[in-house]
């Protein structure tokens, strides 16, 4: 019953955003219950009385810890988002994604090796960038892979294909992740996949179709429709050198890039805004889309990353991650494995 309830919360969350709360909401058992009722209504969560009473205990503790964290003068806030009444173990398992990193024989693109910082723009944000008279944004809004499908690889690949086609054609067109789930048979659908195999499929199949023509179902359907209309194409893909922050900066200065991060820890899941510093591991398994980088007024450098957990998570579906960290792998392993599509 608990597992089903968690799924209901996550499915409903796709159309919602995190709710705000104050010290007053935490002041009494009654006000906490009213906050929980508001949270359930906000996320359209329906529970039987026994389950709701058990979940309320978890919710109260989460709200208290989030409030305490957010008053600790950290560089980022946590959010009472769709994971609000989940335990830490449930939160870690929710939105699980299986993204396998590139195989050892992948050849990096030497174009971006050891690029001097003086050759790079001081900031890049493909969500809002003037480029040759094209659209105001070269990045579609955050989409939602859903709780039951490990399809982050398909969303990250689709996002970069959308962006490079917008850069080349000056038209931003949402593309179909479901096509990759159903038709890219070299990958595992909701069980995970290789990013480079997804790019190979896009090249060999002739391209991706429109999102509206082949909408996302959150599961592999077991068939691939023939004669799909082609909305966007690519000519190949390349791998960015690993463990090289400047190479990754140069790559994303040219176009959005698929990167892999470790996203299964509770702080990442409960991220609500600001510059995320961790803690998180450095064993990447979740594919996301790097869309830029920047620096705060206080001089803190960060990456701009598009996730696939819907616009209700983080900063409208995006996260800013600290760029300068001592770990060779980068924060959450962001420097380990990255690649991008090529379109001439």
UniProtKB/TrEMBL annotation:
Record bears the keyword Signal: yes
- GO biological process assignments: proteolysis
UniProt xrefs under SUPFAM superfamilies: Cysteine proteinases
Which GO MF terms does the UniProt record name? cysteine-type peptidase activity
Give the signal peptide, or none.
1-18
- Report the family membership: Belongs to the peptidase C1 family.
UniProt domain Cathepsin propeptide inhibitor: residue ranges: 36-91
Domain (Peptidase C1A papain C-terminal): residue spans on this chain: 120-342
- Which UniProt key words apply to this protein? Disulfide bond, Signal
Q: What is this protein called?
A: Uncharacterized protein
């Amino acid at each position: 019953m608990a597992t089903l309830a968690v799924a209901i919360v996550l499915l409903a969350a796709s159309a919602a955003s995190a709710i705000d709360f104050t010290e007053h909401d935490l002041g009494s058992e009654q006000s906490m219950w009213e906050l929980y009722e508001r949270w359930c209504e906000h996320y359209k969560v329906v529970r039987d009385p026994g389950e709701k009473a058990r979940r309320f205990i978890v919710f109260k503790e989460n709200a208290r810890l989030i409030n305490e964290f957010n008053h600790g003068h950290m560089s980022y806030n946590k959010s009472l988002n769709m994971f609000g009444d989940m335990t830490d173990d449930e939160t870690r398992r929710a939105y699980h994604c299986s993204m396998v990193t590139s195989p050892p024989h992948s050849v990096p693109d030497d174009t971006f090796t050891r690029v001097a910082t003086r050759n790079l723009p001081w900031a890049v944000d493909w969500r809002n960038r003037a480029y040759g008279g094209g659209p105001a944004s070269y990045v579609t809004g955050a989409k939602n892979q859903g709780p039951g499908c490990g399809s982050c690889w398909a969303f990250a690949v689709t996002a970069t294909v959308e962006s490079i086609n917008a850069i080349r054609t000056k038209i931003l067109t949402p593309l179909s992740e479901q096509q990759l789930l159903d038709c890219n048979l070299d990958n595992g659908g909701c069980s995970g996949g290789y990013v480079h195999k997804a790019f190979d499929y896009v090249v060999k199949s002739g391209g991706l179709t429109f999102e509206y023509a082949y909408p996302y179902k959150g599961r592999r359907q077991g068939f691939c429709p023939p004669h799909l209309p082609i909305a966007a194409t690519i000519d190949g893909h390349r791998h960015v050198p690993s463990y090289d922050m400047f190479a990754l900066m140069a790559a994303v200065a040219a176009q959005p890039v698929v990167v892999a991060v470790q996203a299964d820890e509770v702080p990442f899941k409960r991220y609500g805004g600001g510059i995320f510093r961790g803690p998180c591991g450095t064993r990447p398994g979740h594919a996301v889309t790097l869309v830029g980088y920047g620096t705060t007024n206080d001089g803190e450098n960060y990456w701009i990353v598009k996730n696939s957990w819907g616009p209700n998570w983080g900063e409208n579906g995006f996260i800013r991650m600290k760029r300068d960290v001592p770990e060779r792998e980068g924060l959450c392993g962001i420097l380990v494995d990255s690649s991008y599509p090529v379109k001439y």
